[in-house]
Structure formats: C-alpha cells, structure tokens
Amino acid sequence: MSSPALLRHPEDSMPATAVAEAGPAPAAPPKTPPKTPPSFGTLALRWYRLNQGRLRATAIGIASLIAFLLVWHLLTTYRVVFFVRFTNVPSPLAVYASFTKAIHDPKFLMHILLSCRRIFIGFSLAAIVGVPLGLIMGRFKLVHEIIFPVAEVLRPIPAIAWVPMAIMLWPTNEQSIVFITFLGSFFPILVNTLHGMSLVDPVLVRAAQCLGARERSIFREVYFPASLPHIFTGLTVGMGVAWVSLIAAEMISGQYGIGYFTWEAYSLVQYADIALGMIAIGVLGLGSSLLIRGAGQLVMPWRST
Predict the structure, then answer these.
(1) Residue 21 lies in a domain
(2) Of the candidate ranges 6-10, 26-30, 153-157, 181-185, the one whose mean pLDDT is the lowest
(3) Which one, 10, 196, 237, 253, has the greatest CB density within 10 A?
(4) Are residues 186 and 212 in the same domain?
C-alpha cells in the first residue's frame, strides 16, 4: 500500500514563495486569421484609379475620331459646297472599300514597306550624326562657330527644293530619297540638341570637374542626361519632318512608296486611293512618333509622371 506522501502533486511539495514567483503558465499566442486575397472588383477599382487620366484621354480621343468620321460622312454624302468643295471628295465608306481592296494587293504593301525602310535609314543616320554633333557644338565654342552658320543657311531650304540637287549628287533614286529624308530630320535633331546643351546648369559641370571627372565622364554623366528631354523632342519633330520630306521626294522622283502611290492615284483620278494614301501616311507617322515617345519613357523613367 502506497504512502499518502507519494500520492501528492509535485507543486504541493514546493514552497509557497516559489509557486508565487513562477506565476501562471504562459498563454498560447492568438491565431491570426489567414489573409484573403483582394476581390476582382477591388483590383479593378485600384487599376481604374491608377489609370483614370489615361482612360479619360483615350475616351476623348475615340470620341473625337468618331465625330470627325461623322462630319466627313455628312459633308461627302450631301456634297456640301461652302468655300471648300466636297463634290469629288470620297466618303469614308468608299475609302474603306479601297482599303479592303488594297490590303490584298502585294504592291500596296510593298509601297508601305519601302517607305518605312527609307524612313528608318534616313532617320537613323540623322540621329546618329545630329545628336553627337549637337553635343560637341554645345560643348566646344569653336566647333559651334564653324558649323552653326552653315547649318543655319541650309536649314530653311525645304525638302522639295533638294530633290534636283539630290538626283545630281547620288547615282540612284533610292539614295537620293534617303538623303532628302536624312536632311529633313537632321536639322530639328541638331537644333533641339543644341538647345538642350545650352540649358545645362553650369554648376553641375563645375561640380563634376571639382570631383575629378574627365571630359568623357562629364559628357556621359552631366551633359547627355540633362539634354535627353530636348534630344527626344528633336527626334519626335524630326520624325514628322522626315515623313514630309519623304512624301515630297517620292511624289517627284520615286517609283515606289506611299507618296508615289498617292500621286499615282491622283494622276489616275482614283479619289478613294488618294484619301487612302493620305490616311496611311498619317497612321505611319503617328506610329513612328509613338515609338520614339515610348523609347523616351524607357530611357527617362523619371519623366513618366
């Protein structure tokens, strides 16, 4: 038979002071409920708030295009004559019918591809030459004094005036058209790069020099980043002028291209094709400008806002 002392709880044998100091047993930590992912409606509301400005601009742009097409349709349907004659202007439906026919014609696609290739070559050469030359002219006063007067004399000459000279300078029509496209985009790029260089804070330049930066580092770290907004402005303007120059050259001396397509449609009295060529030029120019602006946002993320 066991003794009563052996059946007692261990705490009964502990002194009262030890039990008081030990205190009650620690409570288990409360269980946090699992977080539920946000609902689709919440995510959609967040996305709308972040993109509210862009959605508003897109909606206004679509509405303005629809209004333009409606006015165009009414003016051409009723043959309105009010200072401007709309008797021979094709309707939007006629242009759309011409578009559906042209997209199945390999010759029309070849016109577009050749124009895009000429723009790419001429504009790329203008950017490769114009941006470094503008940086050097903006940095070194002697270079600016030598080149700037010549550039200012050549800059006001329109692209169409360069067509006879370009035909004499280059052995083929293709090279002359690319040359005219190069000239059209070169001067806006050069002038805007020079303007950006003139606005660089000289305090930043002196600070870089005091820190021991060499000329190459100053160009890379100070002048070029500070001039980037104006450089991309020049690229955007130059792209628009490049398209104007290209169309003028293709209409006069070209055998292929969207400009030649538009002029040929005028010669053959195909009014719907004339409007189709004009719209194609506008869409291609818009797409080119959007590509440059997108590249600018990638290179300058601090200006996205």
Answers:
(1) no
(2) 6-10
(3) 196
(4) yes
Last residue of a domain, one of 60, 89, 118: 89
- Predicted model pTM: 0.79
Size of the chain, expressed as the number of residues it contains: 305
Residues 117 and 251 in one domain: yes
Predicted confidence band of residue 287 (pLDDT cuts 50, 70, 90): very high
Phi-psi label, residue 97: left if phi above 0, alpha if psi -120 to 50, beta otherwise? alpha
Domain count, the chain: 2
Token output for 238: 């130059």
How many angstroms separate the CA atoms of 242 and 281, rounded? 12
Listed residues 57, 89, 121: the one ending a domain? 89
